[in-house]
Amino acid sequence: MNTTLPAGLTATAVVAASSANLGPGFDSLGLALSLYDEIIVETTESGLRLEVEGEGAGQVPLDATHLVVRAIEAGLAVTGHRAAGLIVRCRNEIPHSRGLGSSAAAVVGGLAVVNGLVVQVGSDPMPTEQLIQLSSEFEGHPDNAAAAVLGGAVVSWTEADDDGRPHYRAASVRIHPDIRLFPAVPQQRSSTAETRAVLPDQVSHFDARFNLSRAALLVVALSERPDLLMSATQDVLHQPQRAAAMPASAEYLQLLRRYGVAAVLSGAGPTVLGLSSQAGLPGEAVDYGTANGFTVKEMSVGAGVRWTSGVAARN
């Protein structure tokens, strides 16, 4: 039986955006970005009040179907608690439907904020491994979720438990300090389900070998050899297939690569992520992006999810 939390508890979670795939690491590699959503929760005597500021305001549901609320309810159930009522405030900076892991951030943040509530009544918080598992169950794969939980770059994978259920795992990858990140976010939105539908059910041995080699090389490039980023970010399994669905992103990706920037689709797009060891992007590339509706801004590597009891200021 779940124990009801007393009214008046407050907790806060701050969670980063993430970029998945990074070119060849389809559904496996992820990277957190320094763009954050904040979730503040208060327990009440009854009811649900949901407030959304920033990205998604006026567009997302303000009821129990909201992804943050669903994650909070799941986290409470797993930890053996329930809340008679909740006030949930979401302060969003991560754009929705742009390939920046907004759904993963919502789930990870909702789960993490539960930790901030339950520790106030003497319960143990969910450990990192459990946050990865539960958030990945929402997502169906752990690349964005693991990056949001752990921060930095991650390699993620899935194993089958003895009962056949998926067990989601992830390991952190050191990021070379010279690597700089340049997300280019368009106004256009995309649906991951729709862009995944254009991918073939089978690939050739040649294409599989190509991506395996590039994904392995990318781990080396990210951690030790930024000079290898251009070769390491090549992909033949999903980016060419998605180009027709987002032509502006595909064109900008190729333009950045012609200027020597290791550009990839961020997740399923349409955001393009440039990785470079140079101080900035070439001016012509920035001008092209601006003229074609992309907001280009340098970011640093994002931190792992942070939670606290009470209302804390964002770092």
TrEMBL record:
Top-level taxonomic group: Bacteria
Keyword check for Kinase: yes
GO cellular component: cytoplasm
GHMP kinase C-terminal domain ranges (all copies): 229-277
One of the protein's GO biological processes: threonine biosynthetic process
Domain GHMP kinase N-terminal: 67-152
Catalytic activities: L-homoserine + ATP = O-phospho-L-homoserine + ADP + H(+)
Broad class of the protein's primary localization: cytoplasm
EC number per UniProt: 2.7.1.39
Amino-acid positions noted as binding ATP in the UniProt annotation, renumbered to this chain: P95, H96, S97, R98, G99, L100, G101, S102, S103, A104, A105
HAMAP family in UniProt: Homoser_kinase
NCBIfam families: thrB
Function: Catalyzes the ATP-dependent phosphorylation of L-homoserine to L-homoserine phosphate.
Family in the record: Belongs to the GHMP kinase family. Homoserine kinase subfamily.
Name this protein carries in UniProt: Homoserine kinase
